[in-house]
């Protein structure tokens, strides 16, 4: 298991321990006695708070507390911790109201537990952060790359801070024996090769035979993907696409995903129907024009469908021709700003999911006029249409809405990463992480 994997387990186990410790401290403070409880009371508290702690772990995951990196900005850390305190309190209160027959009086205990956990959690993560700095808990790597590849890779390594570069070798002039000595001396088990060398299997085999310990050999493209969580389309080719993208459909997974889409989009559609009269009224009061904004979008296998949204922009004669209208903030109505802030303008798309035009997770469907441009300008862009577009997606979490071909190209790198790596657990993680958008 990698160092990052070990750290995530340490994070998780430490958090679980602190949750139960916080509950114990809350009980002791509330009753001012170490031996206040009966066995029945203790079992009840343990049982019900175990369910609450599951919610807490999910909230911590949503707000990136299990991302393995040093704390860079304490302001962001405290902001996310404050949101955790709010959501943990609200969800805990809701739980005890929805499950009234608990045989315990948990209100004070709940808030004391949240309070104690927040303090202990900060101290625990700060202490671990300092230990990681002292121990230099980084994975040592050796790079054998071209200058062009380095220009892409070095900024990403700097941002992640989880790697230590032992040495950089030019891919046109390096000595295998020198790399061997350096790797053994520094205990660097990961070597990143230029794509051109990595494709030469005989060279890789000869290289491995020179080492007395297990090596992790990665191509530049594969390592960049792990690091940046996107695909560098400037360095891939048709062989890469054949090996990584053009694979048989997973019928069972697709069926399960469709069942998930139908179930939860039906619930979302009911919410849409309840809010429809109120949202329609404020849209009509605020500005002239229709309640809904409909646009032809490109779906799976380039099938055209109509996407539904609540209108958030002023009506205009050229609204169906202007490609980058989103750039102009003056075009957005007052109500539109509110709807966008809380993503309420997206509610009508639950109908698109029910119809099968969209899935909950996938690349965002593009307007057909923009699609025609992107197909010509962006390499491999047609691969987006191998999967159903989504209500939310990996690219939406990682990159803002594109307002140029250049930005669309950058966003597509994240879409391609999703298409290559998609699975049920990745979809579930994306859905949970989408909740974070409401607090940005």
Question: What report would you give on this structure?
Answer:
Helix 2 packs across helix 3 (74-98). The mean pLDDT is 85. Strand 7, helix 14 (368-377) and strand 8 (390-392) form a beta-alpha-beta unit. Strands 2-1-3-4 form a four-stranded parallel beta sheet, sandwiched between helices. The chain starts with a helix and ends in a 6-residue tail after the last helix. The protein has 17 helices and eight strands. The chain is flat. The protein folds into three domains: 3-135, no CATH class; 139-228, Cobalamin-binding domain (Rossmann fold, 3-Layer(aba) Sandwich), CATH 3.40.50; 251-439, no CATH class. With 440 residues, it is an alpha/beta fold.
The stretches of 5 or more residues where confidence is low (pLDDT under 50) are none
H/E element sequence: HHHHEHEHEHHEHHHEEHHEHEHHH
Helix content: 55-70%
Strand order of the largest sheet: 2-1-3-4
Largest sheet: 4 strands, parallel
The total strand number stands at: 8
Number of domains: 3
Structural class: alpha/beta
Morphology call? flat
Distance between the ends: 34 Å
> What percentage of the residues does DSSP assign to strands (E)?
5-15%
Mean pLDDT: 85
Radius of gyration: 26 Å
Concise overview:
The protein has 440 residues and is an alpha/beta fold. It has 3 domains: 3-135, no CATH class; 139-228, Cobalamin-binding domain (Rossmann fold), CATH 3.40.50.280; 251-439, no CATH class.
